Amino acid sequence: MTETTKGAHGVAKRVIDALMAQIESGTLRPGDQIPTIAALAEKFGANKNTVSKAIVTLKASGVLSGLAGGNTWVRVPPPHKSRSNERYHSEKASVRLSESQRSSAGVSETDSGIPLSTLYEDKAEYAVIEAPEEVRDALQLPPGASVLRRVYTRRHAQKAGVDRSTSYLPYDLVSGSPDLLDATKEPWPGGTMHQLYTIGVELGKIVDRITASMPSPEEVRDFDIPPSVPVLRIQKVSYSIDDKPVEMMDIPIPADRIELTYTTPLELWK
Q: Distance (Å, rounded) from C-alpha 133 to C-alpha 131?
């Protein structure tokens, strides 16, 4: 290692330590923009490439956010979520409650502890599309069948990463109910279970299939995660009491913010 390389490492460490000290003291708060590479290079008497490597290191560790070539800011910490399969029991139990009771018992709020009314962004986008092959297989639909695709995007704070999930319902199942095709009705008190209840569908079981993979570049950007953080991918398929699949959901969740808990009641020995 040359003396120059040693010096660059030392400068990069000084940049990292200085920014970390400002973040830990609260001088730089979540969402605050940090000085530009050029400004930091001038302040520390360093090469821009050296400062850039320091910033990349802090982004990789989840301290800073921002795309290369653009603004960089202190990362807004993602909310921790705890997702239990027992949530489905409470969700079904609330289906026949009054609207006011259903409004106060949402599973999303339970997962994160964040009321929907305080979210920075909460939107639902609806579209009727031809079912992709994976969706068609999960919902046991014929080729060419249509589905109602619903994309839910939520952001708990400005500059925070999003939470996003995608729901697919057989179009023939919901086409006779205008309310279920109307995105302006979201958020729907009681969620999908209550929506299905309004058209006479009772759920009998839910199957969650969970895989994991590394994030795509779009997910790194949208979820605001370091590229090294894997994404858990939940494929949730809901079945009616006569064992027909009535909804499929894709729920990608970065692994740095989720705890999955599964409780399995066991039959007693006779």
A: 6
Beta bridge partners of 64: 74
Parallel, antiparallel, or unpaired for β 81-84 and 258-261? parallel
d(Cα 153, Cα 25) in Å, to the nearest integer? 32
Q: Residues 215, 230: contact at Cβ < 8 Å?
A: yes
Question: Could you tell me the end-to-end alpha-carbon distance of the chain, in angstroms, rounded to an integer?
Answer: 72
Whether the pLDDT of residue 237 is over 80: the answer is: yes
Residue range 135-158, pLDDT digits in tens: 999 999 999 999 999 999 999 999
Q: What's the rounded mean pLDDT across residues 76-95?
A: 91
Q: Is the dihedral of CA 105, 111, 114, 119 positive or negative?
A: negative
- What span, in angstroms and rounded, lies between the C-alpha atoms of 70 and 166? 29
List Cα–Cα distances, 170 to 49, 107, 125, 265, in angstroms.
Answer: 53, 23, 16, 31
E-state strands within the chain: 64-65, 73-74, 81-84, 121-130, 146-155, 162-170, 203-213, 231-240, 245-254, 258-261
Residues contacting 45, CB < 8 A, separation 6+: 11
What does DSSP say about strands 162-170 and 245-254: parallel, antiparallel, or unpaired? antiparallel
Q: Give phi and psi for 33, each to the nearest 5.
A: -80, 140
Distances (CA, A) of 229 to 27, 56, 78, 89, 261: 27, 15, 13, 31, 20
**Among 195, 166, 183, which residue's Cα sits nearest to residue 124?**
183
Q: Which amino acid is at 126?
A: Y
pLDDT at 204: 97
* Torsion angle of C-alpha atoms 107, 193, 136, 174, degrees rounded to 10: -130
